[in-house]
Amino acid sequence: MRVVVQRVKYATCTVDGKITGKCDKGFMLLIGFKEGDTEAQMDKMLKKVSGMRIFEDENGKMNRSLADVNGSILAISQFTLYADCKRGNRPSFTEAMHYETASVYYDKFCDELNKLGIHTEKGIFGADMKVELLNDGPVTILLDSDDL
Q1: Annotated catalytic residue, options 27, 33, 79, 109
Q2: Which residue, among 50, 8, 13, 12, has the nearest Cα to 27 in the 3D structure?
Q3: SS (H, E, C) 80-123
Q4: What's the count of helices (H) and strands (E) in the chain, helices before strands?
Q5: Which of 4, 11, 15, 50 has the fewest CB atoms within 10 Å, counting from its CB?
Q6: Active site residue 6
Q7: In the CATH hierarchy, which top-level class contains the domain 2-143?
Q8: What is the pLDDT of residues 81-113, one digit of tens each?
């Protein structure tokens, strides 16, 4: 499982001209799953994302969490995080989790963030999404469940 965490001032997801999800101050997450990912890995990723302290405190140090700043999340499914570009210029996505299973994992991940008390909105899995955000910092962090 891979998650790109972007600290944002705001983020919105639009599908067919309609906003499907948004957040104000918080995280915009790009979430991808690979074949073989487990719920145990997802649990570790949930703890990591929900506990990240990447908002500045009164001393300008990244020391505050989403809860500390009353932040929210916009979560976007992103199978292209498992693009393999080793051969040629056209990416292969053979490592990405199968569509139906990945959709279930994505929904579960977002539901679990909400259960942790983090207001989480999302895009539409598999749709042609237009995502707009204002990256704050910029702060962008790549998390991989193989490294947790």
Answers
A1: 79
A2: 8
A3: HHHCECCCCCCCECCCECCHHHHHHHHHHHHHHHHHCCCCEEEC
A4: 2, 8
A5: 15
A6: no
A7: alpha beta
A8: 999 999 999 999 999 999 999 999 999 999 999
